[in-house]
Design goal:
Elements (H helix, E strand, L loop, with lengths): L1 E5 L9 E5 L2 E5 L3 H8 L11 H9 L5 E7 L5 E8 L9 E5 L3 H11 L5 E7 L3 H7 E14 L13 E2 L9 E5 L2 E11 L3 E8 L8 H15 L3 E7 L3 H10 L1 E15 L6
Parallel strand pairs: 1-3, 6-7, 12-13
Antiparallel strand pairs: 1-4, 2-3, 4-5, 5-6, 7-14, 8-13, 8-14, 9-10, 10-11, 11-12
Helix pairs in contact: 5-6
Length: 268
């Protein structure tokens, strides 16, 4: 029998959250203790694991639930993080880090509420398992790029202005008459990395404004000691071209992502 530990408060008998077929879900003293347990499973200095490491180890503990999969001897061998974010209050982020299909299925059953939507990120090699167990829409394979400082050449564009996000993270824009035509900011930021996003209005594309705001953002992140990351759909050639023109290089890491809903299982 495998067991899973969860950071959420118990809702069943003392010491247990619920019992599912073949699974015992028991509470842990604190999220911080759980995070210490899984540190050996994720490298928060690796660009390829940075997204997973951020949500597992650094995201706001008040908005994070961690589900740990264990072997028969009690050794952690995988986990699922469920996190509320400011990007979508009604669609939590779910991040899976596990190697086996059986462990993935058990973590889905333990950590995802049936019929509730999530934005799921999982290892690409488990994409078939995800599709079999969950209802997935807008599925995509993502490439993870990191900035190579040796390839980065700062750009000066007098139209680019700094307009920090409400949480204080850097954000740069080009706009006119109160309309933002291009913007680049940060999706999340850990002690080592920051994931960049960029948006350019369709009518404003082809002017180099996307590259200009990303370049300004990259310079600010490097100045604060963070390595910028750029995550992109592997079919999005224009976005990949933009990233590479700024100095981002492909890490070789791939992720499977999409909007996911767990089906109700018998007995629920």
């Amino acid at each position: 029998m495998m067991s899973l530990a969860c950071s959420e408060p118990p809702t069943g008998p003392a010491g247990f959250v619920f019992r599912a077929p073949g699974v015992i879900l028991r509470t842990m003293p604190s999220l911080e203790q759980q995070r210490q347990e899984i540190r050996r499973l994720v490298d928060d200095r690796s660009p390829a694991q940075a997204f997973t490491a951020y949500y597992a180890l650094h995201h706001d503990p008040r908005r994070t639930a961690l589900f740990i999969h264990r072997t028969a001897t009690g050794r952690p061998d995988g986990f699922l993080v469920r996190a509320q974010t400011g990007m979508d209050l009604f669609r939590p982020v779910a991040v899976l880090s596990v190697k086996t299909e059986d462990a993935a299925i058990e973590l889905f059953q333990a950590g995802l509420v049936a019929n509730r939507p999530y934005y799921l990120v999982a290892p690409l090699q488990l994409g078939a398992t995800v599709n079999r167990v969950l209802m997935v829409t807008d599925a995509e394979a993502l490439r993870v790029y990191r900035l190579d400082p040796n390839r980065f050449e700062p750009q000066l564009n007098v139209l680019t202005v700094s307009n920090p996000a409400p949480n204080g993270s850097p954000r740069f824009e080009i706009g006119s008459n109160g309309i933002v035509h291009a913007a680049a900011g940060v999706n999340w930021r850990s002690p080592n990395f920051a994931e960049v996003y960029v948006y350019t209005e369709p009518a404003a594309r082809g002017r180099g404004w996307g590259k200009a705001v990303v370049s300004a953002l990259v310079a600010a992140l490097l100045g604060s000691g963070h390595t910028p990351l750029y995550v992109v759909n592997d079919q999005n050639a224009p976005s990949i071209t933009l990233a590479e023109s700024v100095g981002f290089v492909d890490t070789g890491a791939r992720e499977y992502a999409g909007q996911a809903v767990r089906r109700v299982t018998s007995g629920e």
